[in-house]
Known about the structure:
By secondary structure, this protein is mainly beta. It is 10% helix and 52% strand. The protein has five helices and 26 strands. The relative contact order is 0.10.
Amino acid sequence: xxxxxxxxxxxxxxxxxxxxxxxxxxxxxxxxxxxxxxxxxxxxxxxxxxxxxxxxxxxxxxxxxxxxxxxxxxxxxxxxxxxxxxxxxxxxxxxxxxxxxxxxxxxxxxxxxxxxxxxxxxxxxxxxxxxxxxxxxxxxxxxxxxxxxxxxxxxxxxxxxxxxxxxxxxxxxxxxxxxxxxxxxxxxxxxxxxxxxxxxxxxxxxxxxxxxxxxxxxxxxxxxxxxxxxxxxxxxxxxxxxxxxxxxxxxxxxxxxxxxxxxxxxxxxxxxxxxxxxxxxxxxxxxxxxxxxxxxxxxxxxxxxxxxxxxxxxxxxxxxxxxxxxxxxxxxxxxxxxxxxxxxxxxxxxxxxxxxxxxxxxxxxxxxxxxxxxxxxxxxxxxxxxxxxxxxxxxxxxxxxxxxxxxxxxxxxxxxxxxxxxxxxxxxxxxxxxxxxxxxxxxxxxxxxxxxxxxxxxxxxxxxxxxxxxxxxxxxxxxxxxxxxx
Length: 486
């Protein structure tokens, strides 16, 4: 592990070396022309053209909430641009995809009209906005996923947290996000967050903040044979409390890439019972972990749809450094996710996703080890297991077919279209995690693999449902339900 610091630095700074590869579109804002045009317009007939045309005017319609400047920032075309007429259909598809990826619009329609005898064109973009303020009811499980809660915990409702989050994804029409969360049940939580993506005239810099406080009367304290052991009850004193807050800066030089920097402060505390059961929960037997955190995230969005990707590739790299004042000394780690998506035949698609992590130093207090089996980092078929460790890698391969793709239209302002897409699939996974302190884990320091079949459902407001049947190398079969992307 002598080269670990060098590898860590490469993962942190490598994204800057590729940040300029952005479809050759700079994405700077150009103010739409204010004067009117009196020329007669004709519906565009590209069959009679064999030359370039100037985009004489771009008209935005239907954006009652969203500011036009936000739309101009995304579309990748500008007034005054010269484009090949043969490329117009490509640009129309790009404009529609980019605007739908904002998750602000249900529909995007475009009309292109010829002006000045084919020397220039007028491009009209008409959008239908979504409901900007979305009240969402969130259901979270005390366990790692729905399957563990439903099967291993006998779907005990006392282990469920229910919350209400009010999110304005287009606050003041500036693509600002303002969210307030209130949650009760197993874990009680209050939170607020605000993010404004553009604070400068060039629309490249953004800023925001967030704060939350949560508490629970029960918490896990150790991993035993790849399962979490809990202490505490559903009533009684609070044994886990967490305060978290931070400020952030966003740099987005173009459409496809985004850089996020955060300075966070976190204060975690647990009851004496947990420390008696596991003195290594935090460092030096402390009941508190207080630390500052420097966070950096790089995103490259080269896919057709960030919510459910079928074509293109993406890269997400995260680097975190933590300096503790109590309960934690120092921790740094780098995470990377790389995905490649493509079409192999009509209605047939494939995906290949890699996720990995490097951590330094490897010897960390129990709470900060984590590993495979949490959030989205798990080998399918091992949903019931938690595997603590340091460095890990995970590969997921899918082949899927578009079985159904239809959108129903409704005469409702914010529900003008309800889409439904269904994708049966087959898959195979492989993963490995290095653990310097494996304890009684029987899944650490070995290659894990699984395979199976499933079905993905994508519908209104980017809701995703995955139902998967998997078989792992322990010869265990299982049917698993998930509500997120792979």
